[in-house]
Write a structure and sequence with these properties.
284 residues, alpha/beta, Rossmann fold, two-stranded antiparallel sheet, 6 helices
Length: 284
Amino acid sequence: MMNLARLFLLLLISGALIGADKPAAKKAAAKGDEKTVAPAEKAIPRTELKASVAPGASLKFDFPELTVDRHGAMAACNVKLPAGYEAGKKYPLVAWLGGGEGGNNPSGSFLPEGDFILVGLPYPKGANNPVQANMVGDFAKIWTYQRFMLDEIAKVVPNIDKSHSIIAGFSNGGHAIDGMLRLSSGPKLTEYFGVFIFADGGGTTYTSKGSLADLKGKFAYACWGSEKGSNKAATSQLPKALKAKGATVVGSEMAGVGHAFAETEHPKVAEWLAKVALAPPAKK
């Protein structure tokens, strides 16, 4: 009888200890840094991707060692190789930076005919404008994050033509490109890309802090909407600033458009890329 009483008492004490431990575990999880809160999804080792490189292949690069993205998902980017991909040829990389919270899917709707390697680059969680949480702001953090991804892509797909590579972004994407072009230390955005496309983004008081990098020999296209809600007041200032640093620049107002990268603008960008930014040098 005494043994039963002791057993019952021990069970009560054990239950109390387990119950007390649960809130502490929840608190510890809540205090965990951003790198530990990614969804429980299995990362594919990047070393395995080399075997999947083939014409038209879609490759997903996982980065479990990085901070989660602005959606709280594991850091990752999706790469699309051209249908005519050949290991012995060089191709421009086209990096797309989406608006809002961003994403990791590529976009090539504004490109001319030709072969390109496409990638969608996300933003890291927490790299916000401190006075406007829905706006990107810590450009050094964003560039470190995205540059790591670009370097890892180059290990798997080494035949990237950086001089003709394009980085394009809408809204927050344009803000990020503007801010990253002004970073004064470390590897430059201009070492990875030769063409910069701003779609109704960039040129704001916050993103345009500091001096632009030397843009001699580079190309830039900035477009903005004409209507209420667009980023016209800011983005329309970019062409002059970019040109002053040596870039060959086009500024384009999208008539009847608010805050958008209008589909009607895509063929204009494509034509400019084909005839100007990516055109072979004229024969002497």
